[in-house]
């Protein structure tokens, strides 16, 4: 439980830093946004200033694109089918163990334009979110087995990148 709550946030933050270093355009845009929000302020109180809401581009990077490209758990733990189902012409029998590959779904060209590129802007006009309602994007899983630490992971991942240096 502790590893799932801290290691995943750390890994997500490291992936974000790596992707921004590989994509200077993205990094410059994020830096500009941060500088605009922190301009002229000596101290910030996140509860009072609601900093995260003032950083929409950083949220696109961290909460959307990083989790699409590098989900914290690329393959979900096995699930057992509760009823016989047909998926892509294959019959999945009752009680069959099934594993979901979130990494492959996040890079599937059927759902994503240019899936191998790091493009946070793809989510600007999109209603797709990480709450498990869009099955082409499942960084935290879905349904009753969805990650219980979703809110904690979100705050723990975005906060280090939002801190002024």
Which H/E pattern describes the elements? HHHHEEEEHH
**Order of strands in the sheet with most strands:** 1-4
Strand content: 5-15%
Level of helix content?
A: 40-55%
Write down the overall geometry: elongated
Q: Please count the helical segments.
A: 6
Over the alpha carbons, how many angstroms does the gyration radius reach?
18 Å
Mean pLDDT, all residues: 83
- Structural class of the helix and strand makeup? mainly alpha
Question: Any overview of this molecule?
Answer:
The protein has 165 residues and is mainly α. The strands form two sheets. Strands 1-4 form a two-stranded antiparallel ribbon. The chain is elongated and about 60 Å long.
Topology:
Elements lengths: L1 H21 L1 H15 L7 H4 L6 H14 L9 E2 L4 E3 L2 E3 L4 E2 L3 H5 L43 H13 L3
Antiparallel strand pairs: 1-4, 2-3
Helix pairs in contact: 1-4, 1-6, 2-4, 4-6
